[in-house]
Amino acid sequence: MKKLSIIFCIPVIIFTISCSQRNNFKTDTPTSGIIEIAVDECLAPIIDEQIAVFEALNPDATIIPIYTNELAAYDLFVKDSMRVIIGTRELTLNETKTIKDRKQRVWSQKLAVDGIALIVNKTNPDTLISTSTLKKIITGEITNWDQIYPNSKLGKIAIVFDSPNSSTVRYIKEEVTKNTPIGENVRATSKDTATVDIKERTPNQKVIDYVSGTPNALGLIGVNWISNPSDTTSLSFINRIKVMSVSKEEVATLDNSYKPFPYQFALGQYPLQRDVYIVISDVRGGLASGFVNFSAGEKGQRIVLKAGLLPATQVTRLVRIKRE
């Protein structure tokens, strides 16, 4: 009889432990848990800062960013490997349909206005350029600096960008060259990889390295990589390179050319600007939703402005700079 009693008690003990564990199990909430998000590497500095502040405010939350090129980031999201993506385009109709066919809801929030900066070596005296001239450089019609600036002694233009499947390359192809083939003088500093370790030299950092050490270089890079982190006005850039002023007109002049500052984004005067989106397919109110709401909220938008971009949902103070 004693043996039977022991056998009978075992399932009761197991059931009790199971119930206890189920009651104590902590699912993710808007301020706790662990999630991975896919991020366009071009936006790494600003998203790193967003994550750092969010985790500091919410010690039980861990956001793991997977930095990669644009093509890979959106592929991860559409295949449901990630429930949050941050990039510089919205989903296509086919991408949206794929997600909705899985009975998932998709929600998109504009996060910021970003820009592609054109950077040159500090020794380059010429920093005005038009978008029509930029197109001719990228397509190989213009190959030498003296074709733009007759007095230039820099020789051939060495054009560099981050990686072949980056959002920067897509934007230039769609908005500048209008899908005209890119010339042989254009090269990437990095090959496309599944993920980017931002503790190493990232593709965008390699662009800065190359331009800062090459007098005849012209680099294409995301603005938040070159914003001066110590400048609270967001009106200066790192001192390793020069940032070109870009014009929509056929001939670039001081009066019609603009640098990629937040207030120029707000006025729509900088020609190479684009929107940044945060897209989510997990809207059940968990950690993914919490991070999205933070990024689009007041604290997150202040981080956007500090990074040298234009906040999407907060009022920005416009400052007019008087040219010397």
Give a description of the structure.
By secondary structure, the protein is an alpha/beta fold. The protein folds into 2 domains: 119 residues, Periplasmic binding protein-like II (D-Maltodextrin-Binding Protein, domain 2); 159 residues, 3-Layer(aba) Sandwich (D-Maltodextrin-Binding Protein, domain 2), CATH 3.40.190.10. The strands form 2 sheets. Strands 1, 2, 3, 4, 6, 7, 8, 9, 12 and 13 form a 10-stranded mixed β-sheet that branches. Helix 6 links the parallel strand 6 and strand 7. The chain is globular. The N and C termini lie far apart (100 Å).
State the CATH superfamily name of the largest domain. Answer: Periplasmic binding protein-like II
Number of helices: 10
Shape: globular
Annotated CATH architecture of the largest domain: 3-Layer(aba) Sandwich
What's the CATH C level of the largest domain? Answer: Alpha Beta
Structural class: alpha/beta
Overall mean pLDDT: 85
How would a crystallographer describe the biggest sheet? 10 strands, mixed
CATH fold descriptor of the largest domain: D-Maltodextrin-Binding Protein, domain 2
Order of helices and strands: HEHEHEHEEHEHEHEEEEHEHHE
Are there runs of 5+ residues with pLDDT below 50, and where? Answer: 1-26
Helix content: 25-40%
Cα distance, first to last residue? Answer: 100 Å
The rounded Rg comes to 24 Å
The number of distinct structural domains comes to 2
